Fold this protein.
Amino acid sequence: MLILGIETSCDETAAAVVRDDGLVLSDVIHSQIKLHAPYGGIVPELASRDHMKNIRPVIDQALRQSNVGLPDIGGISVTCRPGLSGALLVGIQIAKGIAFARKLPVVGVDHLMGHLLAVFLRHEPGDERKPDWPFVALIVSGGHTALYRVDGPELPDIRELGATRDDAAGEAFDKVAKLLGLGYPGGPIIDRLAREGDPTQIPLSRPMPGRNTFEFSFSGLKTNVMRYVTEFGVPSDNESLRNLCATFQTRVVDTLVKKAVLAAKAERVKSLVIGGGVAANSQLRASLRSACERHGIDLFAPTLRACTDNAAMIAYAGRHRLVSGQSDATSLTMSPYTALNSVTRKGPGRRARPS
Ligand code: KG4
Ligand code: ZN
């Protein structure tokens, strides 16, 4: 079956055609970064309008690039949660419209399921390495940071082990970059600067030091950077700026690596999977690779393009329901919240222990 995937949950208008075995035939992304840049963050109303403008051309391009036409498509997968309400509705409406006109099944997909399963996408025929079920997954994006136990490809198979109590890792990257006047999104910029920095020169706190839980907290680290900047100013020389970026990034990466390995061991799984925009971080990928090697865990990371938001992962995440003949046609609606279960209390207070 060929699946048309549609993603409009935030600031990327995306469409893709993916075969039901995960082979990506096309993967088109129109980013709104420039549109929102002057406001220093995403403006929901502008996001919806821009999705409206671009969704048709983006879908047309995805079909053209895959060399298939709508008559070849067997089903549609569209992000229906979590995200900006108006933005989600644009994708859902066009998915329903195409499904109605072509008499196709359409399923709504949780965006986080897309990130969780992005590792199954294949960009070349013959690229067959896949994780075995069950596995532990670390999802690190701009909106979410959490560890999951994943027993299968559908929602009831997934259990949260712990999540951030405040900022997501990507949010911390973006806020620190903004503080340092580096631009948006901050993750890739800090990643680049940190490569030539020394992470031992600037004293920054470790997020949640010594706590053996699967929860995260990044707001203290961000405040620490803010205090440093208030006291010493934004570093004016390149070397100090790179050192600050390297220290901040090392603090984030060390915590993510430590907890992900701890979770994989506690759940006694062979494979660790990562996903979400921050999974593109070069230091995180390298540190996880060596930690997993040391602990005898198989690490599975999506390609860099499949880490950040895209529609190929949405097509694949809807695949299991489409292949088994399901459709949400009339009931399909949006929600700003994820459908994945959550065990983590946000904010201060007692912390959950690993079970
Ligand atoms: O998954 P994603 O595209 O969107 C959400 O679902 O949130 O993730 C976007 C986030 C942004 O916060 C961005 O700064 C971060 O991923 N990011 C990175 C890198 N590339 C993107 N963070 C650290 N290092 C990177 N190389
Ligand atoms: Zn995402």
